[in-house]
Specification:
heterodimer, A: Rossmann fold, 2 domains, B: alpha+beta, D-amino Acid Aminotransferase, Chain A, domain 1, Dna Ligase, domain 1, Rossmann fold, 17 strands
């Protein structure tokens, strides 16, 4: 993050107060760091067992944006996090996300490989981390940089939803088009398709859904391994997207060509 | 779960919550019926008098406790147990012994019964459905109840959905559900108590799903949980060490779970290994589109060190149906040089299936150098690697 040029104001690790890492001061508590540096955002890397208390500490210290990298967070802790963040007007990206990157402003709050991302006017939102890198890389090498790229998080529930991210950029002049990377399971793509139709979202939207070949009637470990009817499957998501006017790529490699056809 | 008995709205909620394969949660811990019922008892939810036997020789002793007539039920995770002959009502000890031997010999959707649950048979006048599950869209747990549960799938009426706040289900909310279901008298009191106990169970034991289907209405109006389905939140198991013995029995899945890999066996011949659930899913799609058949889904997870890459390769090496291995890595927090070093070590250990790899991301040039002179076939892009692995052999 420092290497990329991000203004990392402080680190927080209990018991390391007063130390410096790469010139960045370390504090015992988030509240001390916020007070001394005026930081407004926090990125959380702590293990799942300590995740909720880290979020709580950041929220109560007055941070307004939390990027939660931690994976394997229990559902109950995620629900508590959503409840707390909602009460304090805090935006949480994740958990289980590689974070967010705004190339033009040299802001990288995350663990993504920076060379795959270039400044530009595409907003890239992804349910999958590595697919986000893959697709950003494809876009960048084809001349389509990103205004922002972020992982919404790979868990069944997310601090901020796909629809909320779309709402955030819908009137922004620095975004020309949106790429949404999804996967099977849940109904966030179907909901997004409704949002796009219902609110007459005006920017072109491109999408990719991973998991067309995931087996039906097969338990993928989860109880949800059995696909019933036509709901939550890749086909259902693709058809919901198409009826909302979203252009759907069949492979990650097709996205730049679709974008070029529309944006030129 | 009697899927067709639910109205489309409830079905949609349910499917979004639990029935969809989710790449992010490929392992889960689902309890057998009797394990779920032990939890029910702990939380005061009424269940029939029962005994667990693992050997038909123990049937006579179990019947002494349970009495006759009794129900003998195969303990399997697979659905469709009744249709597969895994449940029998018996009226004599002789019949019980014969049926238990028959059931223990069944394979239900490929699954051998772990044990038998011998239960007192109950006569009841009605059946309901009650469950609490995560609703992904609402981002909360919801209580779902229908007036018709069990086998009366065609006549379901009066479904009701109640979102549950983070603080838990209130008595007022449980009473409101009971009213919407038109319950009265003893049934109503029992329902309110069972709904609240079930919600407390789900919250304290940290489950993704707790379901009673059917919830029987007995002739005196009281309610009894005839079946249980409980799925634990695998991410919360660190707070519930008592469940640690419930890990998968398939040795490969057990190994994968120990390493923290997301691993799913599939029936093709190309093992697919990558970092990130989405990338691996997408790779499965590419393989299928090219006419190939994946032998497994294995997500290494983020930040994989060399040792994890080695463990993953050694695991898929043992997969009997994997004739070729496809590795697709896009390095982020995962260092491509770690992946390459791990790959090199495993292929140099001795003969194994051919490995086709695409390694991209930071330090990829050094990673490629590490693999020079090994049998690993390297490709620049994922489609190239997929084309090669599908069209060989």
């Amino acid at each position: 993050m420092l290497q990329y040029g991000t203004n990392v104001a402080a680190g927080v690790t209990p018991g390391k107060m007063g130390e410096k890492v790469e010139g960045v001061p370390v504090f015992d508590k988030v509240s001390q760091a916020v007070e001394k540096t005026g930081a407004r955002s926090s990125i959380i890397f702590v293990p799942a067992a300590y995740f909720y208390s880290a979020v709580e500490e950041a929220v109560l210290a007055g941070v307004k944006l939390v990027v939660a990298i931690t994976e394997h967070v229990p559902i109950r802790d995620e629900l508590k996090m959503i409840d707390l963040a909602g009460k304090h007007g805090v935006t949480v990206v994740g958990p289980n996300t590689p974070g967010l990157i705004i190339p033009a402003r040299k802001v990288k709050m995350g663990i993504m490989p920076a060379p795959s991302f270039r400044p530009g006017k595409i907003a890239l939102f992804s349910r999958s981390g590595t697919l986000m890198y893959e697709i950003a890389n494809q876009l960048s090498t084809n001349g389509f940089g990103q205004a922002v790229a972020l992982g919404i998080g790979g868990d069944p529930i997310n601090g901020t939803t796909m629809v909320e991210y779309f709402d955030w950029i819908r009137t922004r002049d620095d975004v020309d088009a949106v790429v949404a990377v999804g996967e099977i399971g849940g109904d966030s793509e179907e909901r997004l398709a409704h949002y796009i139709s219902d609110t007459k979202f005006s920017k072109p939207v491109f999408a990719y859904i991973a998991g067309r070949a995931a087996p039906k009637e097969k338990r993928m470990g989860h109880a949800g391994a059995i696909i019933y009817g036509n709901f939550g499957t890749a086909e259902s998501k693709i058809s919901a997207y198409r009826s909302a006017g979203v252009q759907v790529a069949m492979t990650p490699m097709e996205i730049p060509a679709l974008v070029r056809k529309t944006l030129g | 779960m009697d899927w067709l008995s639910l109205d489309p709205v409830v079905r949609t909620r349910l499917s979004s919550a639990i029935f969809m394969p989710s790449a992010e949660r490929v392992k889960c811990v689902r309890l057998l019926e009797y394990q779920g019922k032990e939890l029910f008892k702990k939380y005061g939810i009424p269940v029939p008098n029962s005994q667990v036997v693992t050997d038909p020789a123990g049937i006579a002793a179990a019947l002494k406790v349970v009495g006759l007539p009794a129900v003998i039920k195969a303990q399997v995770l697979a659905g469709g147990r009744g249709k597969a002959g895994g449940i029998a009502v018996v009226k004599s000890e002789q019949e019980a012994v014969r049926e238990s031997m028959r059931i223990m010999g069944l394979r239900i959707s490929g699954e051998k019964p772990n044990a038998l649950l011998v239960e007192q048979a109950s006569t009841h006048s009605g059946e309901m459905y009650l469950s609490i599950t995560l609703d992904r869209s609402r981002r909360s747990f919801v209580l779902l109840a229908t007036k018709a549960g069990g086998i009366e799938v065609e006549s379901a009426t009066g479904q009701t959905v109640e979102p549950i706040p983070i603080t838990g289900l209130t008595r007022a909310a449980a009473e409101s559900v009971a009213s919407r279901l038109d319950l009265s008298g003893g049934s109503r009191d029992d329902f309110v108590k069972i709904a609240m106990d079930l919600e407390r169970l789900l919250r304290e034991e940290e489950c993704e799903l707790a379901e009673i289907n059917p919830l029987a209405i007995l002739s005196d109006g009281s309610l009894l949980a005839l079946d249980s389905k409980v799925i634990l939140d695998d991410n919360a198991l660190f707070r519930h060490p008592e469940f640690s013995q419930l890990m998968p029995e398939d040795p490969l899945e057990g190994d994968a779970a120990k390493e923290g890999f997301a691993f799913v066996r599939l029936d093709g011949n190309i093992a697919v290994v990558g970092n990130g659930a989405g990338l691996v899913l997408s790779t499965l799609d590419l393989v299928a589109d090219a006419g190939g058949k994946p032998a497994c889904f294995l997500d290494l997870g983020g930040g994989s060190q060399q040792s994890r890459v080695e463990a993953a390769l050694r695991l898929v090496k043992k997969l009997p149906n994997a004739q070729r291995i496809l590795v697709n890595i896009f390095g982020g927090i995962t260092r491509t040089t770690d992946v390459a070093a791990g790959l090199r070590n495993v292929v140099n250990e001795g003969p194994m299936q051919p490995v086709y790899a695409r390694i991209s991301g930071a330090e990829e040039e050094e990673a490629k150098k590490l693999l020079e002179g090994t049998s690993v076939k390297l490709y620049h892009t994922a489609p190239e690697a997929v084309t090669a692995v599908v069209n060989t052999g």
